[in-house]
Amino acid sequence: MNSRVGYVAFNTFREAVRDRVLYNLIAFVLLLSGAAILVGEVSIDIERLVVVNLGLTAVSLFGVVIAILIGIGLVSKEIDKRTLYTVLSRPVRRWEFVVGKFFGLTGTLVVNTFFMALGVLLALLYVAHKFEKMDAWVLVALYFIVLQFLIVCALALFFSSFSTPLMSAVFTFALFVIGSLSDDLRGFARITHGTAGGLATAIAYLVPNFSALNVINQVAHGDAVPGRLILYNTIYGLLYSAMAISGAVLIFQRRDLK
Amino acid sequence: MNLVATAVLFLSLAGAMATLYAMDHERWNSAAQESLYLRSPKVLRRLSLGYTGLLADIYWTRAVQYFGEQHHANSGDFRLLAPLLEVTTELDPKLLPAYQFGANFLAPKPPSGAGLPGAALELMLYGVAHNPDQWRLYYNLGFLYYIEFKDYAKAAEAFRQGAALPVTNEFMPILAARMAQHAGEFDTARMLWMTTYQSIKEPRIRENAVEHLLALQVDEEVTQLEHVVAKYREQFGRLPGSMSDLEHAGFIRGMPADPKGHPYQLMADGRIEVADPKDLYFITKGLPPGTAPPQPPIEPPATTDSK
């Protein structure tokens, strides 16, 4: 990695992990994972299912909130703190700044996910008393969740390169909701014809496909995740993030920061 | 000022908790307030943003709590049970406990269940259609046909399909054969409850299976003893005066006792009764005339709020 990108990434990571809001959100996920044990007890025969479903859903949703919160501050925070000018006055190119930011935030998200996942796995161990072979698929679901965070974070960075933090958060969250319904959107596109059909198809393929990244229910039942899906999701997640980051770089290059 | 603020804080907290308690109490007494605002699984599926597994778990827990509350209140009103189970299974068609226990909630007559065998059958058929590799669902379907509908042909077919699966239970082919022959009612019922006991981990269901097995034992023993009394009457031209008469005549060995250890009572009219009917749930024989089969006590649900 370019050393300047690495430097920006390291500093972004260091700054992000200092944010107390993140700790609160992680603590909340850990609490929810613990609560899943209790929920399983007031129901019948779904202790493991509840722990996996509630735990992974909490990791996913709170992680998305974390990804949006840390991703929308690309320019505004740096301008507020006057640090952007200091960084850009040095031999750091704008694209290096954006890419470094993305890597730093990605590192933060991976570390956060690690701690949240630890809570889920401990809760799972508590209800099942031991790990089974099928629990390995929970790790695959967590990997997909991390890919989901990469896309959300990249989108938040993209929107924050030209918009205010509030609007960036709204745009990113809206895309997250639409992307979560992308299966329905593609289904709608398939049954629509003419110009509307073409438009629907274009939108369906343009919005991020979060449906394929959500295998929580599947792994909760201990079902295997096909290797090809893992490969496709990895390629898709990396390409979509790269696309959003490239867009952010293009806009940020032209942005007047005075 | 600090003292006032502290006092206000604690008083407000106590007041809020008391209000909540009063609200809960109102809700507990009014089953009419129970409602299911969203009945469409399709709408719920979209609203869940793909997190359908968690939503299905929540709806299943609601169904369990709803059934527990209505059962405990002895209201006999289970109109939300079938829709709750429908939403649950459409959100997660692989949620096996919802079929296994849901049908068990729906089918039996009140007070044990909702008395909706048709809805239970619909639920089981949906479960089998979406989980054709699960022998337990075929077992539950066969059980339902046998117990609730007395449809031996369909029960045999369900057990046969379950027996043909790569992963199945050793009793399934035997059950299929027995259903096809209509043979040995006691043995068949015993095998069904044994399979339930062996295949389910849930303690309450296992206890229920044990009680049914004990009841079957009592029903079978009472039937046999009454048969022995009839034979004695045939041979001696009178009814035996006590169990000892049967023993001395060589019809029985020792004093027969029920599974709880209480000796069976020989009544003056030749009937056999258990010593303490309240101790043996679900028995249909050995009861004083006009007595309904005793039911286990209704336990309160785990929580009081199903909303």
What does this entry show, briefly?
The complex is a heterodimer of chains A (258) and B (307). Chain A is mainly α and 258 residues long. Chain A has helices at 3-16, 20-42, 47-71, 76-80, 83-89, 94-128, 136-160, 165-180, 182-191, 194-206, 216-220, 227-254.
Features:
heterodimer; A: 258 residues; mainly alpha; 12 helices; 80% helix; globular; B: 307 residues; Serine Threonine Protein Phosphatase 5, Tetratricopeptide repeat; two-stranded antiparallel ribbon; 2 strands; 61% helix
Describe this structure in words.
The complex is a heterodimer of chains A (258) and B (307). In chain A, 80% of the residues lie in helices and 0% in strands. By secondary structure, chain A is mainly α. Chain A has one domain. In chain A, helix 3 runs antiparallel to helix 6, helix 3 packs parallel to helix 7 and helix 7 crosses helix 8. The relative contact order of chain A is 0.14. Chain B is mainly alpha-helical. Among the domains of chain B are: 146 residues, Tetratricopeptide repeat domain (Serine Threonine Protein Phosphatase 5, Tetratricopeptide repeat, Alpha Horseshoe); 66 residues, no CATH class. Chain B has twelve helices and two strands; from the N terminus they run ααααααααααααββ. Chain B has a two-stranded antiparallel ribbon.
